Amino acid sequence: MAQFPRTEPEIDQLATDMIGGFENNAEEFPSPPVALDQFRESLEAYREARRKAKDAAAAAKSATREKDEILKALVANMKTNLRYVENTCGYHHATLKSMGWGGRRPKKPMEVPGQVGVVEILKEGPGWIALRWRKPDDGGDVRAYRVERCKLGGERWEIAGMSTSTKARIENQERGVTWMYRVIAVNAVGEGRESATAEAVL
């Protein structure tokens, strides 16, 4: 069974074919519910509306293109005048505020990093250990992490390795010793507090 068309070109074609069919079979279909003249008028009305819609769409596209060009020119003029005002008043905040603008934001001084989160042992083997930790929840940006170690019960901490990510594999560790490991976040300003320790016997 045929299906009624969904696209406009298909509907237009079917309406045209139906008009031709009624004309060629007038004796068999003498009195259609919608008179043939009315049927033709509805098809022509649709075609006229379609032409107007296409013209309107083309005009809207052209108008939008013109609007975008005018907006681009406006933005360029605004930026030029804002630069003029900034340079003239020396970025005076109150003056710029009166223009609906604002002065330069003061640079936030860099802070030392916060404390590294929990240090976990991922894997370990003869003379090596892989550690992972959580980056600080506060403080300044971290540039690197320093991994330190100390023998259990000792007080002397030494550098075991460095990392720019939140994990590290530390090689060449003395075996048969209980080591305590901790991690410290560092940046150009300084270093954060030591993390809690993780213990391992390699």
Name a few traits of the molecule.
202 residues; alpha+beta; Immunoglobulin-like; four-stranded antiparallel beta sheet; three-stranded antiparallel beta sheet; 7 strands; elongated
**Residue windows where pLDDT falls under 50 for at least 5 positions:** none
Spatially, the strands of the biggest sheet line up as 4-3-6-7
- Strand content is 15-25%
Q: Please, how many helices?
A: 3
Helical amount:
25-40%
CATH class of the largest domain: Mainly Beta
In this structure, how is the largest beta sheet organized? 4 strands, antiparallel
Identify the CATH architecture of the largest domain: Sandwich
According to CATH, the fold-level topology of the largest domain is: Immunoglobulin-like
What's the CATH H-level superfamily name of the largest domain? Answer: Immunoglobulins
Give the termini separation.
80 Å
Whole-angstrom Rg: 39 Å
Shape assignment: elongated
